[in-house]
């Protein structure tokens, strides 16, 4: 796990970029890679690559990056892990390849040399990388199917840049800070910034599951190599009976866990009192790891309540023979860490604080790698949205399906009963938006609806941001081709939007701020492909029940019967108090549902270093 960056002055009239910028961008990501740093320039110094290293596989200096191929034609910077690396290595050696290291990085060079852009179809893992091809005079970029690892790019028409963090690109001093209204609007709608947008107009995310080529003609359009909806659509054409779900989950999850344990350092686990992390702990034991350390957060405010994770997490550790580390968290520590949290938050998010503290605890325990149960709800139907969205579509879809009916009904009610309209905006929104899956999902996940934005933020920014973001069109595009079932549609929407733009991104910045690699075995493209035929028959509770039974020794019944949980901290009171400590003004009026508070949201925006001299963003 690392921080990567590059500068490529591709235009014929471009001057060679400066070393100062390359190093400033690289070293802004020091926490991502405290174990080493490297830099490389091509012969004419028009392309430079930078790397910060967190050593996980092949800890020796021979695996340092940027890494050259043996003939010097190719140079790579890579962030991530390739979990099928042992199989790929054996394959390459059987074909006569001479590998100088035991790192997965070197295997990527050989795969590119043999298969070009098609190499990405052979990879199982989380990855973002760039390969300089000296013969073709260009850079090949790639990002993993789910977007677990970030990769941000900037192009000014003459020079192309990329890095693992938005703030790192800005730290180089040559990327414009002009704000992106679509990013601001996206944050207000969803609580995170939807890719490919960021908070800055000149910085974009390489979309998940895409590659991109950049040469002397400039950057080409990113090209997709996988599609979550297509995988589920293929599964729906050949569905399997519901009775097969437990065995398929058992085999698929164990296979994924075994792959995700690949490391030359200890692998621990984040453990809540829920099914996802508990089942993964049992599968780690089944995969053969005997010494397992599990990290649980605990707060004095939760002691003796159902929100206290520690007692049941301790029961799971006893059940599987793991060593339990309970990390106590206080309000004082939260307030003290808040400035660092906002600084580490690469893009604004209303979540991620819990991941920050459990990652901090893992680092204190000496861990470099931790398994997380993230992704189980999206894959196995654990969210209420798997029941809510289909029900809303059935009950209210007619209003949204008839052009204008929902819109004019909402406007009429707003005119005759404005109090109800302001108090229950989503109740009215369901009449307008439930005619499509995209609209229904926006109702379920949106903090606000598009028609509310001009009232809660600058109206001009809201209009321009909505025009550029096109939230409904973007949500609908992720469902092409049709996943073939209600459960499949919700799975794609939750995975490609909420999980990708918020949960995975939060896991990346919060983990990497503590030099910790967070691995997510339930967010695995191979696992998704294996379970796709079971998704059409997925019923409420069946997926999580199957996961609880996946270990050879199933989870204790008290865990399975417990209400859904995760790593919780008492953010409501703490965040409001902490935002007050930061002297962040409140906009006044009642707090909207969905945001922790106006003051906290403003603190997040300010922590994102939004250029206030260019655009003020009043936060609701």
Core attributes:
620 residues, alpha+beta, 7-stranded antiparallel sheet, 6-stranded antiparallel sheet, 26 helices, 43% helix, 15% strand, disordered C terminus
Would you write up a description of this structure?
The structure is a single chain. This protein is of the alpha+beta class and 620 residues long. It is built from 26 helices and 18 strands. Strands 4, 5, 6, 7, 11, 12 and 13 form a seven-stranded antiparallel β-sheet that branches. The protein has a six-stranded antiparallel β-sheet with strand order 2-3-1-9-8-10. A five-stranded parallel β-sheet has the order 16-15-14-17-18, sandwiched between helices. Strand 4 (67-68) and strand 5 (74-82) form a beta hairpin. The longest helix is centred in the last third of the chain and has 27 residues, at 486-512. It is globular and about 70 Å long. The two termini are 37 Å apart. The model is unreliable at 582-600 and 605-620 (pLDDT under 50).
């Amino acid at each position: 796990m690392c921080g990567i960056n590059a500068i490529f002055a591709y235009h014929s009239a471009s001057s060679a970029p400066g070393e100062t910028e390359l190093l400033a961008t690289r070293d802004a990501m020091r926490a991502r890679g405290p174990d080493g740093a490297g830099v490389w320039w091509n012969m004419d110094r028009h392309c430079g690559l930078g790397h910060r290293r967190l050593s996980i596989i092949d800890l020796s200096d021979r695996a340092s990056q940027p890494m050259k191929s043996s003939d010097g034609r190719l140079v790579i910077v890579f962030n991530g892990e390739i979990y099928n690396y042992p199989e790929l290595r054996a394959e390459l050696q059987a074909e006569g390849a001479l590998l100088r290291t035991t790192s997965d990085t070197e295997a990527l060079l050989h795969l590119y040399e043999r298969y070009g852009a098609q190499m990405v179809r052979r990879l199982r893992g989380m990855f973002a990388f760039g390969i300089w091809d000296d013969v073709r005079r260009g850079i090949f970029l790639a990002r993993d199917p789910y977007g677990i690892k970030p990769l941000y790019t900037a192009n000014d028409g003459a020079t192309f840049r990329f890095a693992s963090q938005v703030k790192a690109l800005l730290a180089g001093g040559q990327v414009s800070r002009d704000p992106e209204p679509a990013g601001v609007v996206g944050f207000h709608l969803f609580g995170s910034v939807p890719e490919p947008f960021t908070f800055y107009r000149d910085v974009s995310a390489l979309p998940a599951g895409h590659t991109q080529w950049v040469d002397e003609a400039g950057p080409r359009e990113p090209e997709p190599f996988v599609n979550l909806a297509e995988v589920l659509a293929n599964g729906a054409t050949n569905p399997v009976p519901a009775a097969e779900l437990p065995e398929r989950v058992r085999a698929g999850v164990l296979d994924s866990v075994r792959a995700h344990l690949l490391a030359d350092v200890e692998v621990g686990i984040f453990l809540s009192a829920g099914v996802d992390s508990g089942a993964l702990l049992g599968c780690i034991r089944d995969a053969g790891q005997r010494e397992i350390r599990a990290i649980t957060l605990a707060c004095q405010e939760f002691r003796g309540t159902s929100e206290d994770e520690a007692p049941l997490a301790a029961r799971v550790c006893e059940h599987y023979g793991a060593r339990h580390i309970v990390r106590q968290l206080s309000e004082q520590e939260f307030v003290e860490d808040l400035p660092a949290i906002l600084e580490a938050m690469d893009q604004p998010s209303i979540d991620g604080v819990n991941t920050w503290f459990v990652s901090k605890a893992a680092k204190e325990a000496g861990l470099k790698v931790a398994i997380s149960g993230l992704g189980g709800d999206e894959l196995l139907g654990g969210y209420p949205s798997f029941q809510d969205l289909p029900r809303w579509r059935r009950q209210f879809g007619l209003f949204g399906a008839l052009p204008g009916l929902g819109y004019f009904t909402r406007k009429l009610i707003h005119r005759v009963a404005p109090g109800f309209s302001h108090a229950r905006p989503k109740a009215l929104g369901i009449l307008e938006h439930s005619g499509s899956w995209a609209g229904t999902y926006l109702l379920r996940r949106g903090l606000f609806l598009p028609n509310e934005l001009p009232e809660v933020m600058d109206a001009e920014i809201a209009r321009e941001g909505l025009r550029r973001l096109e939230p409904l069109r973007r949500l609908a595009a992720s469902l092409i081709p049709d996943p073939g079932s209600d459960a499949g549609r919700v799975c794609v929407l939750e995975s490609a939007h909420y999980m990708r733009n918020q949960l995975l991104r939060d896991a990346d910045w919060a983990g990497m701020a503590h030099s910790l690699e967070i691995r997510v075995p339930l967010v695995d493209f191979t696992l998704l492909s294996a379970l796709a035929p079971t998704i059409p028959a997925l019923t409420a509770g069946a997926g999580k029940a199957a996961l609880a039974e996946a270990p050879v020794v199933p989870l204790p019944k008290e865990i399975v019967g417990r209400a859904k949980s995760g790593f919780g901290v008492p953010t409501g009171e703490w965040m409001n108090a902490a935002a007050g400590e930061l002297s962040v003004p409140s906009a006044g009026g009642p707090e909207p549902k969905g945001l922790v508070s106006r003051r906290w949201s403003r603190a997040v925006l300010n922590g994102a270093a939004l250029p206030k001299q260019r655009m003020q963003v009043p936060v609701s």
